Amino acid sequence: MDKISSVILFAVIGALVVMFWPLLVLYKGTKKHKSKQVKNMSRNDYFTNQSNQMNQRSSSGIDESRPATIAVIYRSEMDYISRCIHDYPNIETGGQLFGFVTEYGAPVVCYAIGPGPRANHQPAQFNQDTEYLQNTYNELNRRYGLRYIGEWHSHHQLGLAKPSGGDTQTVVYGIKRRNFRHFLLCIGNCDSNQHSTLNAFTFHLDDPFNYFHAPWKIIEMESPYRPIIDRDLSDWLCHPRTQRASYGSIYIITDSGTTSRITPKYTDEYWLNDKANNVILKRIIDFLTNYENESTVKPMLDGQKYVHLMVQRGNHQERIVFGNQFPNEAPKIEVTEGVYVNDTAVWQYDGNIFDSFVRYYDDLFKKETYDS
Ligand SMILES: [Zn+2]
After folding, report:
1. 281 and 320 fall within a common domain
2. pLDDT per residue of the chain (372 residues) written in tens, 0 to 9
3. How far is the CA of 202 from the centre of ligand 1 (A)?
């Protein structure tokens, strides 16, 4: 080996090790907390059934010994990644995917993260902030039993909608080294009109270079993990600045098992998209702050930019969630155990959001004033 080729070899290996550092650090955690996976069993069974149905329908079938033929994701996580991609339309960005793998090897993305504060964004390379990833992963695994199942990164407007040669080598190196049987690599793209795409590529350890372009099975709902994790880890999670997901064509599999390319529409008619309603939210916060004893009220946005108000009143805590159907449906109000709530209170929206909220809230927490 001459001098030049040994230098190149060294540089390549160096790059691979650096790029796959996340896999190296995370594997320890995965092994250590293996017992936590039991938590996901019921959901796992659900998807196993789905996979069985898919297996009967599809000629290629789903075979655990091959790369998965579908990749499952909640709508909220697809939206989250789209928003992250739009944050960096001219440079690479990325993040990691957490969830579980069914016994047929299909990845199920329950929670996605974007770049940490010290991530390295380059035109043709992305390196995650390893401290951000490690901290997040440790908590996701310890608290919720989620596993590290894949990664995503954006090739922005480069036009390459599949893994580059370097991407493939990096994944193959990583899954061999860490003995990951299945791995999901997602490649994002966007155009100058703010349309993003996300393609799923599934890898299998037995034949790692033959990855499969898997259609998405999108679960049309918010991931149940999204609001909880966004709240619990709000101290250090970084969220995209872009508020709205926006799509080009996405390769999906329908319930009947046929694949097609569709352009999901962002149909969210959220109440706060109407600027006038921001004033009403402010009035609601003031009302809550001054309700009985002084309270602190912290507004938060979850991954779908739905507003949560965290209310601290003495020793009691409340979380008020203004979901997608608000004000046509009641805000969801969770309280600390032991706090009296009048469960006969009914949400009656009369066209005035603030008055309806105050009436409902008073009704929920009214003291038994008619006793004496
Ligand atoms: Zn790439």
Report:
1. yes
2. 333 333 333 333 333 333 444 443 443 333 333 333 333 333 334 344 444 444 443 434 568 899 999 999 999 999 999 999 999 999 999 999 999 999 899 999 999 999 999 999 999 899 999 999 999 999 999 999 999 999 999 999 888 999 999 999 999 999 999 999 999 999 999 987 778 999 999 999 999 999 999 999 999 888 999 999 999 999 999 999 998 888 888 999 988 888 989 887 655 567 887 777 888 999 999 999 988 877 899 888 776 678 889 999 888 889 999 987 888 889 999 888 888 888 889 999 888 999 999 999 999 988 655 544
3. 15
Distance 171 CA to ligand 1 centre (A): 11
Q: 181: CA distance to ligand 1 center in Å?
A: 21
- Domain residues for the domain of 53 are 3-262
CA of 154 to the centre of ligand 1 (A): 7
Residue 256's CATH number: 3.40.140.10
Q: Decide if 66 contacts 202 (C-beta within 8 A).
A: no
CA of 51 from ligand 1 middle (Å) equals: 29
DSSP 160-226: --S--HHHHHHHHHHHHHHT-SEEEEEEEEE-TTS-EEEEEEEEETTSTTS-EEEPEEEESS--THH
Distance 124 CA to ligand 1 centre (A): 7
By the CB criterion, residues less than 5 angstroms from ion ligand 1 are: 164, 167
Residue that is last in its domain, among 262, 291, 311: 262
Domain membership flag for residue 371: no
Q: State which of 245, 262, 279 marks the end of a domain.
A: 262
